[in-house]
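Below is how a single chain appears once it has passed through the pipeline. First comes the sequence as given, then the structure the pipeline wrote out for it. We keep one example in the README because the format questions we get most often are answered faster by looking than by reading.
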Amino acid sequence: MANLNGTWIYRSFRPDNDPPSLVPWAPPGELSVTTDKTGNVNGKLKFPSVTGLELTISGSITPAVVGKLPEGIELTGEGGHQSVNKLRGYFIAGSPSPVIVGTIVAVKNDPAGRPNGTSGPFVLFPATTKG
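Resulting structure:
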């Protein structure tokens, strides 16, 4: 089973009506998490460029479904501006270091002011890689 132990760089994007049709949603974030032996994930997502913006992260590693889905994550982020966000992503096989891509949905009170239900892609990659 994969784990998320450590610090990851978080980037998210949202749709926009003007070109380009996809723009940064949140500033770069730092996701620091631990994964227990059962796959439960807990941690914090901080946005260094926005003083005080921090989300408490909880969720789990999701198992692969052979021939259909790779191993992934289902996370909830709660905090800043009493927001709730859902993230669903997948580990990308064949990468030189772990990479996770997926979709984030603003469930409630998006700190950037986007309407509830707004969704877009996100990517997570390790804050440091061994070379």
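The radius of gyration is 14 Å.

See the next section for the split statistics.
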